Sequence to fold (262 residues):
Amino acid sequence: MKTIVITGSSRGIGYHLADQFLANQCQVVLSGRSVNSLSAAQINLVDKHPNTQLITVPCDVSEYDQIENLWLKAVEQFGKVDIWINNAGQAHSQAKSWEQPQSTMLNIVQSNVLGVMYGCKIAMQGMLRQGYGAIYNMEGLGSDGRIVEGLSIYGSSKSAVRYFSRCLVKDSAHTSIIVGTLSPGMVMTDLIRKQYAQDPVGWQKAKPIFNILADTPQTVAGWLAPHILNNKKNGAHIAWLPQWKALWRFISTPFIKRNVTD
Fold:
């Protein structure tokens, strides 16, 4: 039975990945900053998956010691960690970079960049000691170099995640550890809605595109989870919405109507 640790898994795609892994008879460690959110997530998942192997560990990924504790609690409970997913991240409302508060810049970099680096360092060291394991980093807007006005801080953080992940793949090439990236495409979560929290006009303009390209976290997690479990390749890029699929959605728009924003 595989043990999966997912940062930022009390809600959004992290929560639904946990749901899918539990459905596949895995042991799961939920983590997140909010104790209340973790408790609610645990109650829902245990109710859905009776007799499941699930624990929760509060963890702010911007704090190195808390990620260390996450690893230790997982090993203490389950004896090992087979898969570690760096999913936790923060977004921000759309605005020019110079209009963003310093606190927003700091939070994004600490969570989305340092949080991934810390998670990879701790998971890699632990997996090298146990002799096996896989680490996956969650990409996002900016990972492929695409630029969206008003999202420069978030996009830069996700661009850094891809670069760091590619470096880690090379660094781990002669080890027994698998390193990969997850590309969920556009997922309708609180992160996206938060980007438009102060821009209702922009949200109305963006909705048609989201209804073409975006998906629910349940849909994306349902596809990602089995691909993660079955992957044996170092450097794997597991992508839900590759270019050909995105192009097909635009072409088929007149015939297939989708609504994921309401």
